[in-house]
Design brief:
27% of the residues lie in helices and 25% in strands. By secondary structure, it is an alpha/beta fold. It has two domains: 324 residues, Rossmann fold (3-Layer(aba) Sandwich), CATH 3.40.50.12780; 96 residues, 2-Layer Sandwich (GMP Synthetase, Chain A, domain 3). The strands form six sheets. It has a nine-stranded mixed β-sheet with strand order 2-1-11-10-12-13-14-15-16, sandwiched between helices. Strand 21 and strand 22 form a beta hairpin. Helix 2 packs across helix 3.
Length: 545
């Protein structure tokens, strides 16, 4: 069985029921309305309605038509098809159409620059590219250099001269399933690493891995046909799509929200009766800040049906969850850990029943095994820090065209994650930091995530990133880049005083008040910060004794 079988099953059993909803909030008008007016808001995107929806039957038909379009153009099994789209109603039918044609889907980060788009298309040997109007200005400078790409399909009005109107063409294609037989061992998709440690690597997964993601997500969060999943993160990323796979398996509705303002999230939950919401840390922080400041009044929304809030993609500060549960005490909370190399979230899973372990990422997820090992590959003792390794049916086949990098992380079926972790006496795993982010200062290993979690408990701090800066005497020292909450003021002396509760060697030696950059999946862009601040003259903060 492969995941396209579930789409066909849903079309057969629940054909007229809503599969997907796309919401396009207005940037200008929504601030003046309440949730009761929500359906009346016009889209800020000309020609795009505020709300669009699609049934399971229509979803399957659109996927079949796109698959048949590819086949009609002589596209062969195994061809790589790039998808460069913002979240929209067309995204998933295109993805499933690629799979149904026996091709390999290659989702692309919508924040890529022209050079990054070209790099990834070349790396993955993409021959067909599907893209939307938001990317024309980035495509124009490089289109003549994309020698491998033979076909360009456009999603939207006014296709550029070098592209064809893909959605218009599919109207002339058969809506029947194409005669392509798929098995779990077939290659299915190439995802790109987030690039937090350099240029992205191409991660190849087979259909078995995608099926694993469906099973793991539905097992962990128990989606039923009555659930409604609010999907906000970009679909090109494994995290968002693999969480949606629980909706695919259960045949339940999902909502694609194009926007992250707290008001938009709460209105979407209210109007679409969402029961499950997956957030990134910055969005959860923004929601809490808006509520606690009084800018958002929860009395304007109907949220009783919202049962589960879960967070992933990065370490989750326990202080954030404690704040959340004070405001939403009836919510179940969960977190998942995963990598694109392990088909996204779920290889480690906390579980809603383990709320007393807030701060942990959990235990091995459904169908997964874990171990924490030292530099020699030997298991460490309970409580000791080592590298987390995971094993299961969702592990990637390889880094595409990169056997050296593959050999570094895949050993005897185990994926070495590069994340440092420890396990407590009950078997729960806690992330400590990225192996490459550990700061070694005067011979001491310092884990930035621990300091970041501590600083986030300060009531004036919105976000924080801790990095190592070169030091002639100690090798490295820690610097804290701190983003203060809107409308608040904070001094270096105040932060130093707060940090007295930390062991002396863990206290930041330099304080920098600045915006903390994060990528679209919520991860702090530490290479950007290192590039920026390692070149600055070092002025150490005074650490008060």
């Amino acid at each position: 069985m492969v995941i396209t079988d579930f789409l066909e099953r849903n079309a057969r059993l629940y054909g007229s029921e809503t599969a997907l909803v796309e919401l396009n909030p207005s940037n200008e008008r929504d601030n003046a309305v309440t949730w009761r007016d929500f359906n009346l808001i016009e889209s800020a995107n000309p020609g795009v309605p505020y709300r669009r929806e699609m049934s399971w039957k229509d979803f399957d038909r659109r996927a079949n038509r796109f698959a048949n379009l590819l086949l009609s153009r002589g596209i062969e099994r195994g061809t790589k098809v790039g998808i460069l789209l913002m979240n929209c109603l067309e995204w998933l039918p295109v993805y499933f159409g690629v799979l149904k044609a026996g091709c390999i889907a290659v989702p692309m980060n919508f924040r890529y620059s022209s050079d990054e788009i070209k790099y990834c298309l070349d790396l993955a040997d993409v021959q067909v590219l599907v893209f939307g109007p938001e990317f024309v200005t980035r495509m124009d400078p490089i289109v003549s250099e994309l020698a491998k790409v033979k076909l360009f399909f456009f999603v939207g009005p006014d296709a550029p001269a070098y592209a064809e109107d893909g959605m218009k063409l599919t109207a002339f294609c058969s809506s029947s399933a194409p005669p392509v037989h798929l098995v779990e061992e077939d290659d299915a998709a190439i995802y790109f690493s987030s690039g937090t440690t350099g240029f992205p690597k191409a991660i190849l997964h087979d259909h078995r891995a995608l099926l694993c993601a469906c099973q793991v997500e539905q097992k962990h969060h128990g989606q039923t046909r009555s659930d409604v999943f609010l999907c906000i993160p970009p679909l090109y990323h494994t995290g968002a799509k693999m969480h949606w796979f629980g909706s695919l398996l259960s045949g339940s509705k999902a909502v694609l929200l194009r926007g992250v303002k707290p008001e938009w999230i709460l209105r979407a939950v209210t109007e679409e009766k969402c029961t499950i919401v997956w957030l990134l840390v910055p969005w959860a922080q923004d929601l809490l800040d808006a509520i606690e400041s009084g800018r958002v009044d929860l009395n304007h929304y109907y949220l009783d049906q919202w049962r589960l809030m879960h967070i992933g993609a990065q370490p989750v500060p326990p202080s954030l969850i404690n704040r959340w549960l004070k405001i939403f005490p009836h919510h179940q909370y969960d977190t998942n850990y995963g990598l694109s190399e392990s088909i996204g979230p779920g290889c480690v899973h906390l579980g809603v029943e383990n709320i007393h372990k807030v701060g942990a990422i959990g235990k091995a997820g459904y169908l997964w095994s874990t171990k924490i090992i030292d530099e020699k590959g030997e298991p460490v003792k309970s409580g000791e820090v080592g590298e987390l390794a995971v094993k299961g049916p969702g592990v990637m086949k390889c880094y595409y065209k990169n056997p050296e990098a593959t050999a570094e992380v895949l050993r005897d079926g185990w994926l070495y994650t590069g994340d440092m972790a420890r396990e407590d006496e009950d078997g729960f795993i806690y992330l400590v930091d990225r192996k490459k982010d550990v700061v070694i200062s005067g011979g001491e290993n310092i884990y930035p995530v621990q300091i970041e979690d501590f600083l986030r408990a300060h009531d004036k701090i919105k976000d924080v990133a801790v990095i190592g800066l070169p030091d002639a005497r100690l090798g490295e020292i820690t610097a804290a880049i701190i983003e203060i909450k809107e409308g608040m003021a904070c001094s270096e002396e105040e932060i130093n005083e707060f940090c007295k509760a930390l062991p002396r060697y863990k206290r930041p030696r330099q304080i920098i008040f600045e915006h903390v950059p994060r990528n679209p999946t919520g991860k702090i862009e530490k290479p950007v910060l290192r590039e920026r601040y390692c070149k600055m003259p070092l002025v150490e903060a005074q650490i008060m004794s």
